[in-house]
Amino acid sequence: MKGFAMTAPNKVEWIEKEKPKAGPKDAIIKPTALAPCSSDIHTVWEGGLDLQGEIRILGHEAIGIVDSVGSEVKDFKPGDKVIVPAITPNWSAKASQCGFHQHADCLLGGYQFTFVRDGSMSEYFLVNDADANLAIQPDEMSDESALMLTDMVTTGFSGAENANIQIGDNVAVIGIGPVGLNAVAGAELRGAGRIFAVGSRPDCINIAKKYGATDIVNYREGDIVEQILAETNGVGVDAVVLAGGNAETFAQAIQMTKPGSTISNINYFGTQNYKNAGDILPIPRDAWGAGMAHKTVVGGLCPGGRVRMEKLVNVVESGRFDPGLLITHRFKGLEKVEDALYLMKDKPRDLIKPMVKID
Fold first, then answer.
1. Residue (of 192, 165, 167, 173) closest to 296 by Cα position
2. To bridge 264 with a disulfide, which of 44, 120, 162, 305 should be the other Cys (CB 3.0-4.6 Å)?
3. Is the dihedral of CA 28, 34, 39, 40 positive or negative?
4. What is the pLDDT of residues 154-194, one digit of tens each?
C-alpha cells in the first residue's frame, strides 16, 4: 500500500509498505477523510519525535470504513463507517485504569499513531483495541464534523474541562486556531460568562464569535495582559485556556488570572516556542503570589477512546455545536495529503483547517 511518511528529520515522502494485518483486538481502516495537524508539523520539522532512523507514516486525524477486524472484535464489522480518535490507548494498561489513558504503557503512550506505529495517512491503517477505540459515524453526520471530533474538538474541549470553568466565569482563550476555537466552544458549553478570545486572524475571529466569544483581544493592538485586566477592572479572569503562543505567553496566562484561578494548557511547547528561552517555562513570581496565589496550572494530552467520541457525537447531533465550520480548505484524493500538510506548515492567513476527502 501507499503511505505518506517521515523518512528522516525535516523530510517527508511517499513510500510503499505492506498493508497492516489485524491482530485479535485490532481493526484495519480504509480512510475516507484525513486532516493533517500541527502535531505532524512538530514531528517532522520541529524535532517533536525522534524516530531514531525508523520510517513512520504520518497522520492521526481520520475517519473511515472498517476493512477487516480481528477475531476478538465484537462491536464493529467490515463496512462500518467509523470515527477514529487521535488517542487510541491500550485500555488494559495500569495508567488507563488509574484514569490517565493518554499515558498507557509510557508517557504519551496513548498517542499510538506515528508515535508508536504507522499513522493514518495511507491507504489502510491499523487501530488497536478496536472495540474501545472506534466509534460509529452516524449516517446524518457530515464528514467535516466527524473528522474534527477526532482531535481538534476533543483537545479544545479538554482545555475547557481542565480549566474547571464554572457557570458565569470569565475565561480567556489564548490562541484561536482550530484547537483554541474548540476551547472557546467548550467554555461556552460549560457556561462561561465573558469569553475573551485572543487572536488576530479575521476568519478565526469570525468563528470564535459564532462559538461563543464575547470579546476579541488582538495581541497586535497591545499587551494582552493589560487589555484583559482593563476589561475586568484589574481583577483578571477566572480561567485561561492556553492554546497557542510561546514561553512568554505562558507567563502572560498566569499574569491575567485572579487568585484561585486555573491555567489550562493544551499548547505544545516545542523548540519553536522557546525562542532561545531555554528549556524552562517561566512562572512570574509576583503574579503567582510568590507561590501563595492558589493558581493551578494543569496541562495534558486530550482524551481519546470510544466513549469520548460518542459523547462528542452527541453534542453535535443535539445541535449544540458545529465543528464542520473549522474546515476552510478542501482537497480530493489521498495524494493531496502532501499538499494539505505543507499548507499546515505554511499557515496562510485564511487557513483554519484543511481536509482531504478520499474516494
1. 165
2. 162
3. positive
4. 999 999 999 999 999 999 999 999 999 999 999 999 999 99
Alpha-carbon gap, residue 199 to 207, rounded angstroms? 11
Q: Which residues contact 84 (CB under 8 A, 6 or more apart)?
A: 29, 62, 63, 64, 120, 127, 133, 134, 150
How many CB atoms neighbour CB 339 within 10 A? 14
Nearest to 174 by CA among 245, 230, 223: 245
Residue pointed to by grid coordinates 472495540 = 131
**Backbone phi and psi for residue 161, each to the nearest 5 degrees, phi listed first:** -65, -45
Q: What is the reported pTM? A: 0.95
Identify which of 289, 280, 281, 231 has the alpha carbon closest to the alpha carbon of residue 255. 289
Give the domain ranges of the chain.
2-137+322-357, 156-299
DSSP label of 113: B
Q: One-letter amino acid identity for 140?
A: E
Mean per-residue pLDDT for 346-353? 95
156-299 maps to CATH 3.50.50.60: no
3-state class (DSSP) for residue 237: strand
State the fold for domain 2-137+322-357: Quinone Oxidoreductase; Chain A, domain 1 (3.90.180)
